[in-house]
Specification:
The chain has about 110 residues and is of the alpha/beta class. The chain has one domain. Helix content is about 25%, strand content about 20%. The chain is built from three helices and four strands, in the order βαββααβ. Strand 1, helix 1 and strand 2 form a beta-alpha-beta unit.
Length: about 110
């Protein structure tokens, strides 16, 4: 079995203007899969190695609450999602189809 790497990105709010360039760069990394969770529709073509999953913030709060054992709300502070990066592999395990996971961070402009 060939192992692959999957980088998980969680993005709430409007995509940045440079998102098409990010996706083009991701397409060039054929040995890496990208799993992007967002509350927005994608307005551009997505490469084969990128999967975008629509995930409402309420559903993410439910997933986080289930894993941490108490109710958690982002209360409009969506930047706090990054605090949970070490747990992304656990939170999003049902969406993962491969064995190696990682997290990534995009630079805010």
């Amino acid at each position: 079995m060939q192992h692959r790497i999957c980088l998980i990105l969680v993005w709430y709010g409007d995509f940045p203007v440079w998102m098409p360039y990010f996706l083009r760069s991701a397409a060039a990394c054929r040995n890496i899969d990208w799993l992007i969770f967002t509350d927005r529709d994608t307005l551009c073509t997505v490469p084969d190695n990128v999967r975008i999953e629509n995930l409402a913030i309420a559903k993410l709060e439910e997933i986080v609450s289930e894993h941490v054992g108490s109710e958690y709300r982002f209360s409009g502070r969506y930047y706090k999602v990054c605090d949970f990066k070490p747990a992304y592999g656990h939170f999003f395990e049902p969406w993962l189809r491969i064995t190696i996971t990682g997290v990534t961070q995009t630079l805010m402009s």
